Amino acid sequence: MKTWGLTFILGLLILLLGCYSEDKDVILSPDNGLHYGLYPNDRAKNDSVSRYLAYGAYILVQPNGSYTLSFAVDSSFLPPVLQLHRITLSENKTRYFSKRVRSLKPVEKEGRWIYSFICEESDPIMWATTLLGEGDTYYQGKVNNVFFEGDGPYSKSFSLNLVVTGLFEETADGLNEKRLASKMLAAFRKSYEGITIDTIYIRHAENHPTATGRYPADEPWLAGKSSDDVMLSELGGWTEPGVYEALDLVLVHRIDQNGILGYSPLFGENLGGGEHSTVVLGVYMKKGNSEEHLHSDRIIETAIHETGHFFGLRHTTSTLEDMRALNDYSSFEDGIEDTEWCEKILFYGLSQKGASKMSDVFVRRPFVPKIYAGVFDFDGCPDASNIMFPYVTSSSPDGFSDGQLDLVRRNLSLFLH
Ligand SMILES: [Zn+2]
């Protein structure tokens, strides 16, 4: 009996220990199409992301970036575990594969659950979230006011490459490429306070190290028509030593879409070439069957605006097309405290229903360009003089607010350069 009793107790112990040491590590993969995502330091409302954070929302992370993801505590639930998964896309980008890379518990502070991590990837990459709740299933509590912050170790300086593509003669006010470049550099330095713009290099697409022969110097280049890739991604990355840190501003004859002056990704990915590394600018703007030759002031203003998008700034007020492109109607303004927004734009969007759909933010799942909206009067908008106002107005822009510059500085520090 004694032996049996002992065996029983031992057996029970082993069973219990077994239970405790049993691998409770549940991997909860993203289970939807990753339609919603966050990029660092964005202050917009992002309700759609909040809604899908538990089931799979993407985040864009950079090598050596220090990040926090946080949202409001739901006191009816225990804090969920944040799982982060590295995402790789299939070659035709129709499917993705995920591999869990982090499993994090939050710290609670001022009514928020805060998850901190450092990204140890070697390249910019997409990760996705899931939230593990009680019972090893997707967290069922409310997720509100999600915020994704990041800071990186890289310098607050960068250079510009003005990549002259195809035939370029002069701007409407008679500037050649050299004079345009030096005026552009001065304007960037004035607008991007607290950031050092080291220099501007003039490049010619026909001399690109890997795209030789595809961009003849004697032909006006129409972005979106002369080749399919409106962003001309293959013209990013001029790899001579020491110029890796340059942002590639691709200057074309025009963008072949009515009223579009420039294009940028909303939050680019890198300063080293490839997809999401270029900003596109036209010397002309398409206007129906004709085109308007642009003054250097307008080209430069567009370059500064698009570069704002590249480093993660939204329009002060979202256009209907921006919201559509980002799949989120809660983010009708940029959420930055010291910028205004304008109700008129929402009405303008609705009044244009059925008209051509344009946004200059080429979102990752594509975002838009600076838009020429014709005669509509936006000058009464309190944000009309901000450089990130979505439309061209008759007043010249004042520049960025402190809140916008802070966001750009933080994001620039995340970009490997
Ligand atoms: Zn824009």
**What is the helix/strand order?**
HEHEEEEEEEEEHEEEEEEHHHEH
According to CATH, what is the class of the largest domain?
Alpha Beta
Detail the poorly predicted runs.
12-22, 353-357, 362-369
Largest sheet: 7 strands, mixed
The chain-level structural class is alpha/beta
N- to C-terminal distance: 74 Å
Cα Rg: 25 Å
Q: CATH fold name of the largest domain, please?
A: Collagenase (Catalytic Domain)
Mean pLDDT: 85
Please indicate the percent range of residues in DSSP E strands (runs of 2 or more).
15-25%
Number of helices: 7
CA-based shape: globular
Whole-number total of structural domains:
2
Task: Name the bound molecules.
Answer: zinc ion
Which homologous superfamily in CATH is the superfamily of the largest domain? Collagenase (Catalytic Domain)
E-strand count: 17
Helical content stands at 10-25%
Known CATH architecture of the largest domain:
3-Layer(aba) Sandwich
Element layout with pairings:
Elements (H helix, E strand, L loop, with lengths): L1 H20 L15 E2 L8 H6 L5 E4 L4 E7 L8 E9 L6 E9 L2 E3 L2 E7 L6 E8 L14 E5 L5 E8 L12 H15 L4 E9 L17 E2 L22 E10 L6 E2 L14 E10 L2 E4 L2 H15 L9 H7 L16 H9 L8 E2 L40 H13 L3
Parallel strand pairs: 1-2, 10-11, 10-13, 12-13, 13-15
Antiparallel strand pairs: 2-8, 3-7, 3-9, 4-5, 4-8, 6-7, 14-15, 15-16
This protein binds zinc ion (ZN).
Give an overview of the whole structure.
With 417 residues, the chain is an alpha/beta fold. It has 2 domains: 37-151, Immunoglobulin-like (Sandwich); 157-414, Collagenase (Catalytic Domain) (3-Layer(aba) Sandwich), CATH 3.40.390. The chain has helices spanning 2-21, 47-52, 177-191, 296-310, 320-326, 343-351, 402-414; strands at residues 37-38, 58-61, 66-72, 81-89, 96-104, 107-109, 112-118, 125-132, 147-151, 157-164, 196-204, 222-223, 246-255, 262-263, 278-287, 290-293, 360-361. The strands form 3 sheets. Strands 10, 11, 12, 13, 14, 15 and 16 form a 7-stranded mixed β-sheet that branches. Strands 1-2-8-4-5 form a 5-stranded mixed β-sheet, with no helix packed on it. Strand 10, helix 3 (177-191) and strand 11 (196-204) form a beta-alpha-beta unit. Helix 3 (177-191) packs across helix 4 (296-310). The longest helix has 20 residues, at 2-21. The protein is globular. Bound molecules: zinc ion (ZN). Residues 305, 309, 315, 360-361, 368-370, 390 line the site of zinc ion.
